[in-house]
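In the previous lecture we treated proteins in isolation. Real proteins rarely work alone, and many bind small molecules. This record shows how such a complex is specified: first the sequence, then the SMILES for nicotinamide-adenine-dinucleotide.
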Amino acid sequence: MLSEKSIVGVIGAGAMGSGITQVAASAGHSVFLFDAKEGAANNALKKTESSLNKLVEKGKMSQEDVTALCSRITVIDSLSGFASADLIIEAVVEILEVKKELFSALEKVVNASCILASNTSSLSVTSVAAACTNPERVIGLHFFNPAPLMPLVEVIPALQTKDGLAEDCKSLMQAWKKVPVIAKDTPGFIVNRVARPFYGESLKIVEEGIADMATVDAAMREKGGFRMGPFELMDLIGNDINYTVTETVWKQFYYDARFRPSLIQKKMVESERLGRKTGKGYYDYGENAVNPVAKTDDDLSSEIVIRVLAMLINEAADALYYKIATAEDIDLSMTKGVNYPKGLLKWADEIGLEKVLSILDSLYIEYHDDRYRASVLLRQMVRENKSFFN
Ligand SMILES: NC(=O)c1ccc[n+]([C@@H]2O[C@H](COP(=O)([O-])OP(=O)(O)OC[C@H]3O[C@@H](n4cnc5c(N)ncnc54)[C@H](O)[C@@H]3O)[C@@H](O)[C@H]2O)c1
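The predicted 3D structure, ligand included, written as tokens:
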């Protein structure tokens, strides 16, 4: 049973590992941090300390709390330092073979009851677990970037995970002041599956010349209520990362047209226009850059928002149909993991399921593309005059 006294290990001191370390230490755990690259874990700890010191300057945290939090983190230089750990969270590179090798090596040093968790965004937790002699102890704990700020954690039991472990992890994540949801081990889990059309359908709209990217971004922000437009967000995430997630989910769904990536985005990656981190993506972030201006056309904005929204709702409905998570957890995931202004299923109820279905069916008739096939659940619910909530 995991508790606040549990000793936590974190492997990988990159963006995610350092954030998770901070979250665990902040919840009072002793944390051991390891990174294969020399100096990386110490550098990550220094960065955490300096970002926490900024909170002290702003009066949001006391110096004593920062000192106490950092004193709970110990950098170790080999896996054997994890011998006393009760829970280890892995946040190394997103390569299945690397994660499998790591889990197999870990089993040789940790005690029999130690839980091994992966922060993978898109790999199969079941496949990672298969590398272990005791796969029952393996689970996915998917944090969102930046981990100290984003509340959502997807808890993903593998096919082999022992009964009760997901609930146990869920309680621990609540103790860490996170919002945990339990998701089935399927491609993209909840968020990275349901959010695909936010990018994919927006890219399709641009590809077809229905609107340019600045107009799509403005529509999604101003009419849709999203914090950022899809192109601005892809530039922030990094087009390489976003494209890889899309491609991985599409391949894992046996090339389902609903998840098909866009050639526009592929070209962005090929030309290394990766977004903010390279100074150029869909937009130019250089000094004196001239960027496209959104068209003000109310009808066009409404058309863009309802089309992207209908596609998002369709994925949320399909995730529910396949019991990836409960309706409440699907909605929580999108508001707490990617800051959507509303849960998609609640939004669907407000728009009316019949209207959502008719948008999807019109697109399907127009394109004859499987990409626009409506979820069976949506069709059944319209037939039975049901709504997702109440
Ligand atoms: N960045 C995100 O937005 C995000 C969000 C959720 C989940 N994830 C997942 O979290 C994991 C880490 O992502 P990241 O963005 O922090 O990556 P990153 O590149 O910032 O950091 C990875 C770290 O792991 C270290 N590392 C690599 N192989 C190792 C090994 N065998 N043993 C020990 N250390 C090793 C690297 O030196 C590096 O410091 C990936 O599985 C990723 O899919 C990323």
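Summary for your notes: The chain has two domains: 8-185, 190-390. The pocket of nicotinamide-adenine-dinucleotide is lined by residues 11-17, 35-37, 40, 91-94, 98, 102, 119-121, 143-145 (CB under 6 Å).
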